[in-house]
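Gamma-aminobutyric acid receptor subunit pi, pasting as requested.
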Amino acid sequence: MHVCDFVCLAFWLLESSMLNAEVKEGEILPPTIQRLMKGYNKYLRPFFDNGPVTVGMSLDIASIDTISEINMDYTATIFLRQRWTDERLVFEGNKSLSLDGRLVELLWVPDTFIVDSKKSFLHDITVENRLIRIFPNGTVLYALRITTTVACNMDLTKYPMDKQTCTLQLESWGYNINDVMFYWTRGNESVSGLDSLQLAQYTVEDHYTSVSEAIYETGHYPKLVFHFELKRSILYFILETYVPSSLLVVLSWVSFWISLSSVPARICIGVTTVLTMTTLMMGARTSLPNANCFIKAIDVYLGICFSFIFGALIEYAVAHFCTLTHSDAHMLMYGHHMHDFDDEMNGILTTISNHNRAKRHKEPAATPSSAPASTELAVRPSSPSGSEPKPEASPPEPTNWCLTVLATLRKILRSINCCHVENPHHIDNYSRVTFPLSFVMVNLLYWTYYLYF
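Structure tokens follow.
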């Protein structure tokens, strides 16, 4: 019981001190304002017992400083204007009263806040940028200059050919729809300043306003939403990324006009273009947003260019391998012809020796000293008996072993359906046509999809 009496006494003393402070401030006000402030309670909203108070709003976008794809937000400076009618501030006359912004502490004002704001501040140089104007019918105009950073969910799958729709949402913090109602004073014309706004990478294509309700656990609250659509300017990215990467692809095709025997020149062009393209991709990604693991349109294009450049390098490897295989095939064919020639010569010698042997059995030996020698010379190469001397076996030549290995490898390649190229130089001739045509077709599909779908 004593605690309740103490709380009531403290509340009464606090209210008395606040009323005395208002009286002291009212003593320095003009007579008209003193009459208006007499009996005025700023803690009670207008029409407290007669329905909700309607608050009209309008915006003037002074600037949009930054739009961050990495942080998914934008920073803007706005002039927020609010109008409502307070029956307690009606006075006689035909002129409005412009008051100092610091007198806003004496009046009731809506508890409007920006929903998706990450950080905001009210400008206070040289004084707080506030405006209070009271009209004879009790209408109050309250204006603020605010810089706020607002979250904006972005879809970057078509970056840098994307369009982003951001919003600026205004709600009442404590008053629900039974106490306060929000509305745009002039519909879509309530927001101005975007037509003359100059942005670094974007152009404002469209903007519109809407009225809705915010539903929370504590009730339904009034809500105003301003939508604006931003389109990114692609010219910078064309000059910075698309043109250099396309030129690197064209540079890799120069190797198709260089002879297959110029191994250092073609390898140098292939490796240089691959490394340069890798550096370009890494440099482009450092300035691009990588949040949420978006596969962006520019990443797709860089990947296409890298694939074509790497394909040109692989093309030379295939052509050079086919050249080696083609030359080895000629050597292998020559070796088969030589082997057949040796077999034919051995057959001739065998026939001659058999013919001489038969002749020796039919005719008597005329010259015993010279006949055996001639007969020995004729029979020795193909003597079937083991008693006769045999010629010494020649050591196997390494060339025949290499040709055998190459023949085996060739059979293996045929078994895995490796196509045989009659002339390896035709590979470069085909590449001079297929690579540019394929690159043009892929570019047509790429730009058609990302620009029109």
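Note for the archive: The helical segments are 2-26, 31-37, 235-252, 263-286, 297-362, 371-379, 398-415, 425-452.
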